[in-house]
Amino acid sequence: MLGADMLGVYSYSRTLATYFGLFGMLGVKNYGNREISMHRDTGDLNIWFWSIYSVQFLASLLMLIVYLGYTFFFVREDQAVTAVQAILIVDSMLDISWFLFGMEQFKKTTTCSMVVKILTTAAVFLIIREPGDLLKYCLIMSGGTFINQFLLWFYARKLVGRPVFDGGRVLAHVKPMLILFIPVVAVSLYTMMDKLMLGAMSTKEVAISSTCTVFAESEVISQLSMGTNKCDIINGIHNSVASRVVGLAHRVGVVDRVVMTGGVAQNTGVVKALEKQLGHEISTSPLTQYNGALGAALFAYQRVTQDAK
Fold first, then answer.
1. DSSP letters of the chain?
2. Predicted structure pTM score
3. Between the N and C ends of the chain, which has fewer C-beta atoms within 10 Å?
4. If you compute the radius of gyration of the chain from its CA atoms, what whole number of angstroms results?
5. Phi, psi at residue 260, to the nearest 5°?
6. Across 19-23, 157-161, 237-241, 303-307, which has the greatest mean pLDDT?
7. Which residues contact 38 (CB under 8 A, 6 or more apart)?
8. Full 3-state SS string of 34-62
9. Which pLDDT tens digit goes with each residue over 200-214?
10. Average per-residue pLDDT in the chain?
11. C-alpha–C-alpha distance, residues 77 and 9, integer Å
């Protein structure tokens, strides 16, 4: 529906905003969960909550201001999409899932998240029709997360009590949060940084010709030893995967309209390589990883209704 280019714009802008939100959260999720779990049966639970949350709120507010400044002064392309993704930083500012986890309210948080996921998925399939709907898609996904945070506050309102601000306690939380923030950043380098770097930094194609994974790995190691740019190597892997798929596709025939599903369809590098080699535009859904599950659910429903007859 969105296509490879628009999906790439979405992934890049969302990852960028998520990083700002990550720095706004610091190590609150790990630290807050632990501290609330330790003090949930004490009489000063609300003081612990509000002092920890104050750090999260102030840090997230600072990151929101920096992000908006970066968006309006430095972003030239897709500025509206980048600006809308600021909702994700607001979501981080309001995120108190760590408090409910510390209180062992797992059922409420999981149920809330599941309901919102279902609603946002339904909204995407009903509203998103073409690449021009990218802004709507951003609003749906970010808005869904915002609704989720609002519901969590509704659940926690009686537990947290009235706001209490203690400057001394707030400052005391900063150092341990920063210590726990280090592994969070380390993990993010392996889970999100690739979306910011790959593709944009590739300048040439590198041939990866082996069909066997082991031999292909040897080719990659060889290219690395020769000092080849890592992004160029990844670009070569994308093209290698695409050439194999194109060869299989031509055996059965390729006609418009070409649709790609599955988790790999989220990899814009592979999708673009396929479009280039096929000579056809490829349509993808932002929720391609759910297509198999939805199909299985439909088959199961049909089987059950047939058996019932």
1. --HHHHHHHHHHHHHHHHHHHHHHHTTHHHHHHHHHHHHTTSTTHHHHHHHHHHHHHHHHHHHHHHHHHHHHHH--SSHHHHHHTTHHHHHHHH--HHHHHHTT-HHHHHHHHHHHHHHHHHHHHHH--SGGGHHHHHHHHHHHHHHHHHHHHHHHHHHH-S----HHHHHHHHHHHHHHHHHHHHHHHHHTHHHHHTTTT--S------SSHHHHHHHHHHHHHTT--HHHHHHHHHHHHHHHHHHHHHHH---S-EEE-SGGGG-HHHHHHHHHHHTS-EEE-TTGGGHHHHHHHHHHHHHHHHHH-
2. 0.65
3. C
4. 23
5. -120, 130
6. 19-23
7. none
8. HHHHHHCCCCCHHHHHHHHHHHHHHHHHH
9. 455 555 555 555 555
10. 81
11. 10
pLDDT tier for residue 183 given thresholds of 50, 70 and 90:
confident
Rounded CA-CA distance 50/167 in Å is 11
Answer whether 174's CB lies under 8 Å from 55's CB.
yes
User: What's the CA gap between 302 and 309, in Å, rounded?
Assistant: 11
Kindly state the tokens that stand for 36: 């609330």
pLDDT at 59: 93
